[in-house]
Amino acid sequence: MRKLVTSCITALVASQLVVPSVLAKNENALSIVPNEIAAQQVLVKNTIWQYKRLTSEFISTSTTIRIRDIQGTQHISPYNTKTVQQVVGIVTKTDKNGFYMQDPTPDNDIRTSEGIYVYSKNHQVKEGTLVSVSGKVMEYVGPGYSDKAETDLTSTQISATTISVAPTNPFPAPKPVRIGVNGLPIPEESIDSDAFSRFNPEVDAIDFYESLEGMMIELPRPKVVAPQKNGNLYVLVDNNSKNISARGGTPLLQKDNFNPERLSLKVARTFVAKSGDTLDGNVVGVVGYDYGNYRIDPVGTLPALQDGGLKSTVTKLVPQEDQLTVATYNIENFSANTTSTTTDKVTKLAKSITTNLQAPDIIGIQEMQDNNGETNDGTTDASKSAKRLIDAIAAAGGPTYKYIDIAPQNNEDGGAPGANIRVGFLYNPARVHLAEATSLSANPIRIGEGNDLFMNTRKPLAAEFTFKGQNVVVIANHLNSKRGDATPFGKVQPLVLKSEPFRVQLAQEINTFMSNVLAKDSNTAVVALGDMNDFEFSAPLQALKGTVMTNMMEVLPKEERYTYIHDGNAQILDHILVSNNVASKTKIDPVRINAEFMKEHGRLSDHDPVVAQINFAK
């Protein structure tokens, strides 16, 4: 595969090689050929390799099966479940369960991989070893989530029965394939365009990475586009990428583009990196697959990390007497339980609200847990959890907020068992009041109470406030998660979003509620905010918006539209929508304090909060 990266390799016919008699008798023998290029002939099981020491070239006269034959020009090996004999390669990376090896004499077909994983738990080979492997070809479902058999691609491997090792080692590693500018460009528009009907690595990224499965690749000075999480570090190489965030250069999720140029490096879970940092050197690694994604397992030590200088932000929306500020903040499993919610988190969270968010008048909270967190003893009340945060905000110089919610029934609204996460409101009583005479049947009220549609999911909370004589109905939301959706680089193509229809139905119910409020009083300002678990262009958000609301996130420049980073994609999950009657008077500002950072940088949640300001000046 890819002579463009190993152009010095040429073929020799068998008649050009002189095979010493000792080689014919001893499959592990080595003979030095006394000529001007100081060549070695190496016989590993019936395969003759000539290695030119001075030029680091390999030449083979083998007629046996090659790695590229096993990989084929498709996702499933044409040799799947078949036994193969004497497959030769140089070991490029080892682990406790086996090793990767690569054919040092590639062909000129960009569709075929020259690398493969060999499963052999008791192997003792080392990197740089020339080996011959016999065994059974398998399509293996690697590490993944519980539904991996239905969702994930397989990886081609040889389950080894015998491994023969050349007597003189190590040999130089095959030259890695350079990715990006001055190398192979990654398809940027399409992951899969044909439901696997054609194998086209120049068009479809899922085929591009498959054509490199098991091979050594080189990433020139990769830029970090997301904080390290669970040992995965998402990066970009110079691939002329478009549609990236204004700050950390993270690819922005689009309606028809999941940015397949994102690359995931396997690193230690202790590796500290944030968006915008750069690995100051080239990274070489082998291409593998797990948890629904292709990943690069680095060979050797990573280059030093260059700090990109990314800092957290403070909202640009300065508090004003006649302007109401509202915010949405997913505070990620917050409770009064000091074991699960540390004092450090509480202190920093309070500071983020008073300083970075400038103490909004109303804050829609998501993931407030009950008083003892995940202790599953029937407790559902969250008043102590809320008080813990309120006291910390006051201690940080902020206002003394009041908190309202309606507790769920035990374990009926989703989330961790026993934690009873819910939505609620913090509000500043010096600025806003709960309305006494209200168009709502109760204040606050849970939308969907008693509606089977909302079973086993978080019910939105609506509350009516008064601000300077203006009635404002705010709905806090935390819609169902995207769990169950197919993975972009999975076996289900085109992508199926199983969670979306349910979210559309929930959004329609919430929109109906808001439409009814406005039908009763067209002067009421309505705000819908929260963690919607979907994107501004998605069907659920379009249903939520309907004809009566404006999604203020869509007003932002494209490069600022994100509150969350998942698998290296920047995306909006946290939204603030306002009724059309106040849209022209509203400003919005996502506050960058979490999504681009790790805990070591001050991260408090996996979501960035968002602040909006509505001008009610007469």
From TrEMBL:
The keyword Zinc does not apply. InterPro entries: Endo/exonu/phosph_ase_sf, Endo/exonuclease/phosphatase. This is Endonuclease. Gene3D superfamilies: Endonuclease/exonuclease/phosphatase. It comes from Priestia taiwanensis. Residues 1-24 form the signal peptide. CDD domains: MnuA_DNase1-like, YhcR_OBF_like. GO terms for molecular function: endonuclease activity. Residues 338-587 form the Endonuclease/exonuclease/phosphatase domain. Keywords: Endonuclease, Hydrolase, Nuclease, Signal.
